[in-house]
Every structure is written in structure tokens, then in C-alpha cells.
Amino acid sequence: MGAAVKKPSAIYKVDTQQKVVALTFDISWGNKVPEPVLDILEKKKVNKATFFLSGPWTLRHQEIVKRIHKMGFEIGSHGHLHKDFSNYSNAWIIEQVRLSEKAIHQVAGVRTKLIRTPNGDFDTRVVKCLNDMGYTVIQWNTDSLDWKNPGVAAITNRVLNRTVPGDIILMHASDSSKQITQALPQIIDGLRAKGYRFATVSELLAQAEVKTQVQ
């Protein structure tokens, strides 16, 4: 009997005993929150994080995108139009991803290989389509729910209570996330106090691959 064909799937976390996590930020709207988030990361000396940027936002806020890149953070795609991929054809998805890819490359000189779909929406067909384009689909294991603005303590406690080794943590640096700038310093300090260090999503994935090869 041949090996079972692995169903296309998104990545929520990696399997590791090491206390390493990826802080990830989606941005698709606004210019008030991104810079303060970058200021906090700089002040706290966090030099590893992954930003998923939408195409139109990238073109509208080129200086912020360049700063994200210059600070050494990883950039992934957040698609172009903020619409659920599963409602559209493969041809539409490919067009959307290429538009985002082109925008990010034009502004930051980066070729994106990671994608977080708008609204985190996907199904098996969507993942296969994106995999065929050379993309890895990145979800999250811990959702800060910062976009709901439930209060700074609620955001902070949710992340600190749910995070596990190998986690991918979802946050937003869009203007809809009004409390993330107050919660983020506490999240960073709290995770460090628990012994966590930060990695980009790609570094997390590479660690998982190394572990798999060793076994």
C-alpha cells in the first residue's frame, strides 16, 4: 500500500518543545496603528515578527512597508481585496495573489511565499491552489481577538494564557485594532517572562523541518 496522500492544509503552529513563538500582524487598513506597533517592537528589541500585508494597503502606505522591511521583519501576503477566497474561482484567487505579490515586490523588493488569506478563510481547494502557486498558507493557533477591542487586559490575558511552544499568534496592526498598541508591550513582556523567544514564521517552519529530518 502506498503512502496516504496528504490533504492540503494550512499551518496553525509547529510541533516543538522549544519555547519559541511567531508574532504575526495582519494589515489591510489604516495608517494610525502600524507605526506605533513598529515603534513598540523597536523599543522592546523584538527583531523577529511576520507581517501579512494586503496589496492595496501596501501601495497606499509605501513608507511604512519599507520601514517594516528595513527593520528586518518578514513580509507575507494578505491577498489583495479583503474577500473570502473560498467564494471565488481559482483564476480569481491567482489574480488576487499575483496583484498582492506584485505590490509587495514593487515596494519592498520581497517575493512573498507565505500567505494568510483574508478573514482566515479557505477550504481544501483554496489551499491546493495557493500551494500550487508556491505559497504556504499560515493560520494561527492563538487569536488575540484584538480587532474586537475587548479591552487591553482581555487581549493580553488571552494571548498569555493560550500561547504554547511553536505557536503562531494572530494580531492586527490595522486601524480597526484600537487597543493593540497598549496590549502589545504587556504581551511581549509577559511572553518573555514565561521564557519565550520570538521567531519569524519561516524560522518556525524551518525548525519544524529540521526536527522532522532528525527523527
Keywords:
8 strands; 215 residues; TIM Barrel; 13% strand; six-stranded parallel β-sheet; 8 helices; alpha/beta; two-stranded parallel sheet
In a nutshell, what does this entry contain?
This protein is α/β, with parallel strands linked by helices. 43% of the residues lie in helices and 13% in strands. The longest helix is centred in the middle third of the chain and has 19 residues, at 90-108.
Please render the helix and strand layout as text.
Layout: E1 20-27, H1 34-43, E2 50-53, H2 55-60, H3 62-70, E3 74-77, H4 90-108, E4 114-115, H5 124-132, E5 136-137, E6 142-143, H6 152-162, E7 168-172, H7 180-193, E8 197-198, H8 201-214
Parallel strand pairs: 1-2, 1-7, 1-8, 2-3, 4-5, 6-7
Q: Explain this structure to me?
A:
This protein is 43% helix and 13% strand. By secondary structure, the protein is of the alpha/beta class. It has one domain (20-214): TIM Barrel (Alpha-Beta Barrel), CATH 3.20.20. Helix 1 (34-43) links the parallel strand 1 and strand 2 (50-53). Helix 1 packs parallel to helix 7 (180-193) and helix 6 (152-162) packs parallel to helix 7 (180-193).
